Amino acid sequence: MSNYLDDRNDFDPAVLIPANGQLLVELRDRWQTQNGADPFYEEPQAIAKTMLVAVVWPERGDVLFPNAQFQWQKLEQALQANNWAAIGGADTWGSFDFVTTDPTRSNSGQLTLSLWAQAQLNTDLLKPAGLNSAAIQSLFTLVKRSVYQPPRSTDILLQEFITRGPNDADVATVYESIALYRWRQASVTQGKPYQIYYLDPTIETISTAAIVQQQISRSETKAAQKFLDFLTESDQQTVFVQHGFRPVNPAVDLQSVPDSPWSQNIPGVMTTPRSQILPPPDRQTLTEIIRLWQRAN
C-alpha cells in the first residue's frame, strides 16, 4: 500500500487486493488527504474471507484447554510456567512453546496481540490508551521473551510449526485458511493433524479488491471489473474454498464443494463457529501495538 501511495512501483497496477480490506480504507483516507480525490473507481469488492484461529497438537490441546475451548488466560499461564510438567503435561514434553508472527511485519501477529490484550483488559472495545496499562506491557514482554525469532509471514510460521512438531512448537495463531490448506502436510510430516481452536472473539480478515483510477484507461477499468466479477463467480469461489478460504458468494456451500477442507474431518474445524466476529483494529491501535512490542524486553 505504501509503495502505491508513494509511487514506488515499477508498474501501474489496475487492481489492488491486500489481504485485509481495512488497508484499502486507510489507503483511501491517506489518498484523499494528499490528493483530494477518491483513488478508486468503485467501492472495493470483497473476494474471500478468513479468520484468526489457533492450532495445537492434539495431546497438548487436551491438557491446555481441557474444556476444548481456547482461552488466552490458559495460554498466558503456560507461558509463565514455561514447562509442560508444571501445567499438567508429561515431563518428556519439556518446555512450553508458543509461536506467532512478527507483529512489526505480519498482520496475524498484530491481530494476535490485539485479541490477547483485549482479553487481558476484559473489554469489548480496545483503545490505544488502554494498551499503555502495566498489565499489557507485562503481557507483551512475556510473549516477546517466549517467542524466539518470530517469522515474517503466517504461511512460513505454519510450515515451521509443522516441521518442528511437538516439543519445539506446541501452539500457534494463524489464519483459518492456511491452517486448513496445510493440514495434510501436518498429517504426513508428523503422522497426525493438528487441532484447530476457534478464538472467541476472533477477527475476520476479508481479502478485498479495488480498481484504482491513477494511470488506468477506461478499457483497462472494464477489464479489471470483469476480472473481479470472475473471481466472485461460483467456480472461482469454489477454488478459494478448496484452499481454505470462506466464500463471499452465498451460492457456494462450504461442505458441498468437492475436496472442501470442511468435509475432511479436520480436528476442531467448524463451518459455523460460535465465535463473536470482530472487525480488524484501526490503524492507531495497530501502531500502538507495534510500538509496545518494539519496546518490550
Structure description:
The chain has two domains: 95 residues, Periplasmic binding protein-like II (D-Maltodextrin-Binding Protein, domain 2); 179 residues, Periplasmic binding protein-like II (D-Maltodextrin-Binding Protein, domain 2), CATH 3.40.190. 43% of the residues lie in helices and 13% in strands. It has 13 helices and eight strands. Strands 1, 2, 3, 4, 5, 6, 7 and 8 form an eight-stranded mixed sheet that branches. Helix 5 crosses helix 7 and helix 5 crosses helix 13. The chain is globular.
Describe the structure concisely.
Helices cover 43% and strands 13% of the residues. With 297 residues, it is of the alpha+beta class. The protein has two domains: 2-49 and 206-252, D-Maltodextrin-Binding Protein, domain 2 (3-Layer(aba) Sandwich); 52-203 and 269-295, 3-Layer(aba) Sandwich (D-Maltodextrin-Binding Protein, domain 2).
